[in-house]
What we know:
The complex is a heterodimer of chains A (215) and B (254).
Chain A: H1 2-42, H2 46-59, H3 62-73, H4 80-104, H5 108-116, H6 121-152, H7 164-172, H8 176-204
Helix pairs in contact in A: 1-2, 1-4, 1-6, 1-8, 2-4, 3-4, 4-6, 6-8, 7-8
Chain B: H1 2-10, H2 21-53, H3 58-65, H4 71-82, H5 90-117, H6 121-129, H7 134-167, H8 177-186, H9 189-217
Amino acid sequence: MTWLADNWRTVLDLALSHLYLAGIPLVVGLLVSLPLGWAAKRWSRSYPALITTTGLLYTIPSLALFVLMPGVLGTKILDPVNVVVAMTVYTVALLVRTVADGLRAVPDHIEQAATAMGYRGLRRLLGVELPLAVPVIAAGLRVAAVSNVSIVSVASLLGVSQLGDLLVDGYNRVIWGELVTGILACVTLALLLDLVIVTGSRVLTPWLRVQGGRA
Amino acid sequence: MIPSLVSWFTDPANWSGEDGIPNRLLEHVAYTAEAILVAAVVAIPLGLWVGHTGRARWLVSLANSARAVPTLGLLFVVSLWLGPRITGDLAFVVPSIIVLALLAVPPLLAGTYAGVQAVDPAARDAAKGVGMTPLQVLRQVEVPNALPLLFSGVRSAVLQVVATASVAAVISLGGLGRYLIDGIALGDYPRAAAGAVLVAVLAVLLDGVFALVQRRVVSPGLAPGGRGVSGRGKDSRSVEVEADSPSTPVRAPA
């Protein structure tokens, strides 16, 4: 505790970088996954190919992906962009399937009713199908958020600064206070992101809170 | 990047001795196997019990929420705490294996539990109805029906352990992670990149092996498409990929 009291400014700075390195990929990943997931639903032939490719990307261990990024992107190994892009890849890999499955789970009769009421194309997607898929997509996003926060700390091994620095430094210099603070800060950040997603999902799906209400 | 990688892979020095590719690869596979075995001995019976009796479901949620703990932190804590209490080479290996096994528990537990949980209650009742004992219901009905989800848990656990084993090189574990960690420390990018390629290939290969085993072991009636139809028929399109694609939902990578 005394360690935290003496170093809370550093912890806060590192937590902000951590949030940035884990959070930006979450947003970008979601924005990329929405059209891809929709495409997987719209053209059913593309579904196996998309799911297999993204699943394959997901099997690549994080440290390996971080190290390979400079070779692929032509960046320097210390560049935080490597981490942001690698985390975006993981987020997309996880979310494409979730988005596709969420959209596919919208019952046919609801789509037909929406069509009958004059909803077409993009308007039906954004106004009816996507909102109904929000709970499923949010569940995927929660998994991605928690795993992103944990993975980002590994980037300290490459010298990209965030909360993982506390873990590495605490270990190397055997400062238990620093090590434990690092772990607790990571867990707290993961829980905060989780809370934001759960809240966002509730706000976007008011009908689920109506008594007995089900999509 | 490609030429330097090729020259690293074609250098005979990298193919022999303790730091050679065959030895590092074997080490990596051995750590993975040990950790998965230890975790499976604990997690699979526990998952079966929770799924069969419906008791202590909080165990599954507890294991799942423990995933928010950063794997790097867990490695450091266990190594700092246990390392000095163990002598010799084991001081590096034992803490790592413990952490790897700990990380494999949540996906194994969740997969086993979810598999048993998802068994059609009608099938369970029918088994009871024809006079099966609870143990027979478990062994002959629940376990076979739980296999698809159990396997997806095993595959997640394997990927998680392969990934974390390479990170564990930072606490002096052997395996392919050595190339990554030493390459980064020495500023030897070709070595680090070669390690990255090797780990990635190993992960994909192991997942493929388990996918094949899964296809052989799971009853054809449960296979996507149903009733042993493995073709790409139009009516089975919605689920056919599930068993083949690397599993994502129950995993948080390291």
